[in-house]
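Sequence only, no structure available. Ideas?
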Amino acid sequence: MKKNLSPTLRYAVMQGLLWANVAAISGYLNPYLRDRGIPVTVIGLLIALSSVGGALLQPLTGQLADRPGKPTLKQIMLGILGIFAVFASVTAALHHGGGLPVAIACCLSMLTWQLLTPLVNAAALVDSPTAEQPNFPVARGIGSITYAAVFFSMGQLIHGRTWLVPLSMLVLMIPMILTVLRYPLPESRGGQTVRQENGGFFLMRYPRYCMILLGCLGVLIGHSVISHFAIQIVEAHGGQEPQMGAAMALACLMELPVMFGFGVLRKRFTALQMLAASSVFYVLKCIVTWMTTTMTGFYLVQLFQMPAFALQAVSAVLFISQEMAPEDAVKGQTWFSMATAAATILGSAVGGWLFDTYGMDALMRFATIASACGMAATFTALGMRPSRKSPDTP
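Reply:
I predicted one. C-alpha cells follow.
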C-alpha cells in the first residue's frame, strides 16, 4: 500500500487541480456570459466553437505526446498552461467591459484548458517506467471532490460576483503549473519509433474503439445539454445559482463510490460491459430530468451521476489501455476527449437554439434521443471482437 500511496497522491493533486478549474470555467460559463449580456443562443454557439477548436487541436497534442524526443509531455502541458494564462488574464482585464470580447476570451480559456484533459489522463499511465502506476480511479475521485467543492462554493457566492470566474481561473492555474513542473513524467509515451499516419488509418486499426467513440458521443451530448444549460434547467425547476451549485456538487459526490470502488467492479465486469451499463443510466438520467418538475426531483436526478458519468470516466481509460497498443495510448485518450468535445459542440449549439426557439421540452427531447442513439452504439460494440489481445475478461 505504501508503495502505491505516493504516486497515487501525487497524481490525485494533478487531477484535483484539473477538475477544480473545469468547475470554475465550464461549470459557470453559461451564467457568467449571461451576466455579461450574451444571449443563450450565442452562449451555446461560443461553447460549441471553443469545443471545435479543442477537437481540432487535441489530435496534434496527442500525436506530439506519443512521439519520442522533443517536445516532451511535460513541455507540452506547460506550454498549454502558458497559453491559458494569457487568455485568463485577458478575460480578467476585459471583465468590466462585458460584451462579446470578454466572451471570446473566456471561451478561448476554456478551449485551452480542454487540451490538458487527455494529457493528464495519459499521465496516469506514465507516472514512472519503473514504479507502480498510480491508482487512476482513486485519483479521479479526488478530482470529483475538488470539482464538487469549487462548484458548490462558487454557486453560493457568484450571484452578483461574477468576477469570481476569471479570478478563480487565475488562482487555480498557479498550483497546476507548479504541480506539472514537479511531476515525474518521462520524455515520451511511445518507444524509439512512432507510426506516422493520419487519424483515419489510426482508427481503422481499432474498429471496436470507433464504435465506443460513437456511443460516447451520443450519451455525452445528453450529458452536455444538462451540464451547459444547468442554469436554465434549474430556473425551470424554480431554483437559481445557489441551487445549481448544490445540485452539480451533489452530482460530483455521487461519483465517489464508483471511483473508490472501481477495483472491485473491474474484477467482476469488463471495461466494455461497464461502458454499456453507463450508457443505460445516461439515458435514464435524461428521461428523469425531462419528466421532473421540482428542485427536489432534480436533486434526485443527480444520483444517476454515479452509474453514468463516473462509471464511464474510469471505464473508458481502462478500455483504451486494454484495446490499444502502448504507442497509441495518448492518441486513444485524445480521440476520446475529441468525442467529448464534439458532444459539447452539438449539445451546446443545437441545445441553445432549441431552448431559445422551442423551449425546455425540445431541449430535453433532443438530449434523450441523442443518449439513446449512443446507448445503441455502445451495445453494438459488445458484440465486436477486441482490436488486439488484452486482459479483457472479468
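The longest helix spans residues 2-35.
Hope that gets you unstuck.
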